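Working notes for the structural subgroup meeting. M.R. asked for a predicted model of this chain before we commit to crystallization trials. I am recording the input and output together here so anyone reviewing the notebook later can reproduce the run.

Input as submitted:
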Amino acid sequence: MCHEEIMKKILLPSAFALLSIVTVNAQATSSTLTLHEIKKLELSGNYEQALSSLTPFYSHSDLKKQLEARFVEALIYRKQGKHQQAIDALGRLPKQFQLDTNKQYRLYKELGINYRRMGKLDDAEGNYRHALKTAKAMNNNDFVGQSYSNLGTLYDTKNEMAMAMQFQLKARDALKDSQLHGVVANNFYNLGDMAMRFNDLEQAEFFFTKALVADKKSGELSNIAGTALRLAQVTFKRKNYLQVVEKTTEAIELLEQIPANVSLARAHQLISQAYLKLEKGVKAEEHARLSMHYAAQTDNQLQRFHAHIIMARAYLYQHNPEQAQPHYEWLTRFMAEEEENAYLSQLYYNLKAKYDFQQGNHQEAYEALSKANTFFAQNIEKANSEQALTHKRTIDTVMQQQRLDDSEHHRKLTESQLRNAQLMQRMWLFVALTCLLLGILITYILFSKNRTARLKANLYQQNLKQKDQMLADISHELRTPLSVLKLHIEALEYNLLEDDTLAYSKINEKISQLNHLISDVYQLSQADNQAMVVNNQPYCTRTLADSYCYDIKRMVQSNDLHFSADVSIPTNASVLIDKPKLDRVIDNLAKNACLYTDKPGQVRLKIRQSCEGLIIQLEDSSPGVSDNEKPRLFERLYRVESSRSRATGGSGLGLSLCKSLVESMSGDIELRDSRLGGLSVRVTLYEASATPKVKVPQTASQI
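Returned structure, recorded in C-alpha cell form:
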C-alpha cells in the first residue's frame, strides 16, 4: 500500500473525530445539555465535553440533579485515570447530600474501584464490603452480583486466584437474570481474564464472547472495543490468525469512534503480528505504521516501545534493514535509558539478533540471540516462580477457605445438635405432659363413670323406694273405697239397708273416686315416660274464661264459699292450648281450693292474656301452707298434716299431676302465699298466646 493511502487511513478518522467534537461543541454552546445527553457523551468517550457540560448542574435547584451530576463527574475522572480526583469528589457527597441506600451503594462501589486502581487494596476491600452489605440489605441481586464481581477483581489483583474465582462465580449466580448488561459483561470479562491466567484459552474465549455480547447490549463503546480486542488476543494465542484479523478489525472500527489511542496502537500491533504469521509483510507494515501513529499521540513510552518493535519486525520480515534502522536505534536508546527489564530485554535482543544477522554481523547476532535466550530463561523462571507463588497462594487460600468451611460446618453441626437436643428435651417434656394429661383424663373418666354409676344406683334405689311407696300408698288409697264398696254390696245382698238408693249412691261415688285415682296414675305414668301427647287447638280466650268462671263459681258456691273473678283479656283474643289437659288442671286446682279452705272463706280466679302468654291464677283464704311445705306439695301422694289437712278424700296426686300437665304444655306452675290468707297457685302458658301485642287497660288488682 502506498504512503498516500496510509496517510488517508490515519488522517480521515482523526478528521471525522474532530468534526464530531466541533459539532458537539456547537450543539453545547447553542443549548444546555440534559444529564441524559451528558451521559451519552461520557459513554462515547467525550470526557472533557461531558465535564464542561456538567457545570450548570452543580448549582441546580434540584438536589437530585446536583447529586447525579457529581456522580457522573466522579465517573469521568475515574475513566480518565484521575482516581484521586474521583475519590475527593465522592468524599464530599455524604457531607453535601442525604444519601439513600441506593446512592450509598453507588458511593461505596465507586470508591472501591478508584482505590483498587490506585493500588490501595485494603481501602478498596473495605468499600467493596460496605457495598456488598448495602446491596444485601436492599435485597438487590444485581448490586450483590456487582459487589461480588468487584471483590473477585480485587482478589485477582492480590493474586489470590481461588478467592477471586469464588467471588466471580458467586457474581455469575447472582447476575443470572440481570438486565444490567454492563455489570454482567464485567463479570464475564473478569472470568475470561482469570482463565487466561490459568492458560485455559478455550474457556477464556467462551467468557470473553459472553462479555462482548453483554457489552453490545449495554452500548458503551469503550467496553465493547476493549472486550473485542481482548477476545482477539485470545484468538491470537490459539493461532487462529485469520480470525484475529477479523476480530481486531471489528475492535478497531469501534475504537476509532472514541479517543482511545493506546487501545488503537495495541490493536494495530496485534493485527500486524497476525499478518506476519500469515506471511503478509506488506499488510503487517501497514498496520505497524498505524500503530506507530497512534502510539506517538500518547505519553506512554512503553506503548511506543512496542510500536517500534512491531515496525522494525515488519521491515526485517521484508528484508529491509535500512528502514528498520531508525526504529532499532530508537529502541537502543530506550534500553540504555530504562532500567533492565527481562521481558523488554528479550524482545529487544531478539530484534537485534535479526537486525545484525541481516546486516551481516553474525557474531553480534549470535551474542544478541544468546542474551535473548538468557532473558527468555529468566522470564520463564520468573513466570514459573510467579506461577508457583500463585499456586501456593491459591492453595493457602483454598486451605484457609476449607478451614473456614470446616469451622462453619462444625458450628452448624453444633447448632444442629443443640437444636436436636432441645427438640428432644421438648419432645420428652411433651410426651411426659401428654402422659400426665392422659392419666388425669383417664382418672377423671373412670371417676366420672364411677360417680355416674353410683348416682344411677342411688337414683335407681330411690326410684324403687318411691315406686314401693307409691304402690303402698295407692294400695292404701284403693283399700278404703274398695272396703266401702264391699260393705254396701254385702248390705244389699243380705237386705240389711232399708234405703237401697243411698247404697247405690255411695257405690257410684266410690267407683268415681277409683276412676279418678286410676286416671291420675295413668297420666303421671305417661308424663314419666314422656309419652304424653299435646294437641294444641285455637280457642277464643273470652269464651274459655267465661266457661272457667261459671264452672268454678258453681263448685265454690256448692261448698258454701264466696267466689270472685278478675278477668282482663284483649278483644278478639285467642289461644293455642290442649283444652282437655288445661280443664283437668283447672278442675284439680278448683277442687283443692274448695276442699282446703275453711268456711266461711273465699276463692278468687284471675285470668290475664298478653304477648307473653296466658296466665291463670287461683287463690283462696286461710288456712295457708308453710314455706317449708310448699316445695313438697308437688310430690306424689304428699299430704299436708297441718291445719289444711282434713278428711277430704284426696289422693295426694292432684298437684303433682297439675305440674306434669302444665310442663307438658311448655308452661310453669308456682305456689305463693295468697293475699286472702291462704294459698295462691299461678299457671303460666308461655306459648299459648296467638294474639299480637295489644295495650290492655290494667286494673288495680292486676297480677
